[in-house]
Amino acid sequence: MINEHAKPLSRLDYFLQFISQPQAIASVAPSSQALGDAMMRHGRVAEANTVVEFGPGTGAITQVICRTLKPGAAFLAIETNPKFVELISEHYPEVHVVEDDALNVGKHLQKLGLANCDVLISGLPFAAFDDGIQTGLLDAAYEVLAPGGRFVTFTYIHSPLLPRGNRFRDKLVDKFGSVERTPVIWRNLPPAFAYVALKPA
């Protein structure tokens, strides 16, 4: 159950976190409800038995996942920012959140007695990462997805104009083969869209 009495991180606090870690956060504001809804729909989160989230941040997408999950579904979130980990733990006690690098996702699923996940939702700024980080994170995501599983990550509207954004898109296609792009979500700051990658069954 979502803890409605926990004090949320203010926009100012979020902005200060962005200033201190721009490559890790890469946005001046949390993701919108509209973007979260689109990711849930295209990722078929409501059908999943196990969901993993990379980089939950302040919980904007986490909240939507919690409201979408079916009863009994497992939810693991991995975050490197200790302030955000504390916030997620306080607001969403049903989420198993760990402070660690997303590269170690397999280890944390195993600790929960889970071999893989059906959906992996990512809030990480892939377009801001260098080649090695992009490759490592995609490899980790692919490894823990069950056959037929979905990897869903959002990026901002300007991402295709950036060399790293284009490189990430190409890596995603090379890794998964089947990749779709959602319509642009204009009700987000900045406007964004999501890539939906399907692991072969």
Distance between the termini: 33 Å
As a percent range, the share of helical residues equals 25-40%
Task: Describe the largest sheet.
Answer: 7 strands, mixed
H/E element sequence: HHHEHEHEHEHEHEE
Number of helices: 8
Structural class: alpha/beta
Radius of gyration over C-alpha positions, nearest whole angstrom: 15 Å
Q: Which oligomerization state do the chains in this entry correspond to?
A: single chain
Shape: globular
Report the portion of residues in β strands. Answer: 15-25%
| Tally of DSSP β-strands | 7
Mean pLDDT: 88
Low-confidence stretches: 1-20, 22-28
Which strand order spans the largest sheet, edge to edge or round the barrel? 3-2-1-4-5-7-6
Give a description of the structure:
There is one protein chain. The chain has 201 residues and is of the alpha/beta class. Helix content is 39%, strand content 22%. The protein has eight helices and seven strands; from the N terminus they run αααβαβαβαβαβαββ. The chain has a seven-stranded mixed β-sheet with strand order 3-2-1-4-5-7-6, with helices on both faces. α5 links the parallel β2 and β3. α3 packs across α4. It starts with 10 loop residues before the first helix and ends with a strand.
What characteristics describe this protein?
201 residues; 39% helix; 22% strand; single chain; 7-stranded mixed sheet; globular; alpha/beta
